[in-house]
Specification:
Elements (H helix, E strand, L loop, with lengths): L16 H14 L8 E2 L1 H8 L3 H14 L2 E4 L3 E4 L4 H24 L3 H20 L4 H18 L3 H11 L2 H8 L7 H19 L3 H27 L21 H15 L17
Helix pairs in contact: 1-3, 1-8, 2-3, 4-6, 4-7, 4-9, 4-10, 4-11, 5-6, 5-9, 9-10
Length: 285
């Protein structure tokens, strides 16, 4: 998965203390270190983090608004977790944004962009040529390719919105606990994707570039949510709406498409935090 730290850190927004605490808890919820049904005790969290109980209380309210915690009069804050459907939504939004970025790069390609993206692709291909790589290492290198596409798109709206999605705790937790790229065959498959993407951009084929990135994100979403469903003993969610039967997408108006994506983002995401991973609260019980 794409490492948020590779996107370019477009938004180094300063977080408030409650936001920082909320992100720390949210990370462990997404990573399933804090389990569904577990109580979050305000006093214990405050003592561990050296924060005021008021800040912790506000953090728990933020988590309730995100849907990962429920506040009840009887039990206080209880972990409700992230549904697989919501995780699939995160993939869908991120994939739509990255696919648009690929389209921009292909339409406005230049030698410098091709070189920088090509260097990332070569790194991925070199890894597969050497044999199997640890999934996290491979995901980091592959994420470098998609991050380079986003940066080289030159579109500040896309860069900001991709940062908003991939800086979120739920995405960082999924990325740091790989559920994909677990075999050399999968790693070779995605190295081949990276080469196809580079070729499409080099040919100036915006339709093909967008198609390749959407299909990549579709595969990633399907495999990750299927593995998480297996771990949880749940049914996998419906496939994220990213797959396309044909690369003939058509030259639609970018502004309209971005507006639809931003509306989806508003329903899914809180304002972006920084890319710094907060400390684990796994021992807070």
């Amino acid at each position: 998965m794409t490492d948020a730290k590779q996107i370019g850190l477009d938004r180094e927004a300063r977080r408030s203390v409650p936001e920082w605490i909320a992100d720390a808890i949210d990370y462990d919820i997404a990573a399933q270190t804090l389990v569904i049904g577990e109580r979050l005790v305000e006093k214990q969290i405050a003592e561990r983090l050296g924060a005021s109980r008021g800040s912790v209380r506000e953090a728990l309210r933020l988590l309730a608004s995100r849907g990962s915690v429920e506040l009840t009069p009887q039990r206080g804050a209880v972990v409700t977790g992230y549904s697989l459907d919501r995780m699939a939504d995160v993939f869908a939004v991120g994939g739509m944004l990255m696919a648009l970025a690929a389209r921009y790069v292909a339409r406005h390609r230049n030698a410098g962009s091709l070189q920088r993206i090509g260097e990332r692709v070569a790194r991925v291909e070199a890894m597969t040529a050497r044999g199997f790589s640890p999934p996290l290492d491979f995901a980091t290198a592959l994420g470098g390719v998609t991050a380079a596409v986003v940066v080289e798109s030159g579109n500040p709206v896309i860069r900001a919105e991709v940062s908003a999605v991939f800086n979120r705790s739920v995405w960082r937790a999924m990325w740091e606990h790989p559920c994909d790229h677990l075999t050399i065959e999968r790693q070779r498959e995605e190295a081949a994707f990276a080469r196809r993407l580079l070729e499409a951009i080099g040919d100036g084929d915006a339709d093909r570039a967008e198609f390749e990135l959407r299909q990549f994100q579709q595969r990633l979403a399907d495999r990750v949510t299927t593995e998480l469903a297996r771990q949880r003993g749940e049914r996998p969610p419906a496939s994220a709406p990213l797959g396309l039967d044909s690369p003939q997408i058509g030259d639609q108006e970018f502004d309209d498409r971005l507006a639809r994506i931003e509306a989806k983002l508003d329903a899914l995401c809180e304002p972006s935090a920084s890319a710094m991973r907060p400390p684990s609260l796994a021992k807070v019980r």
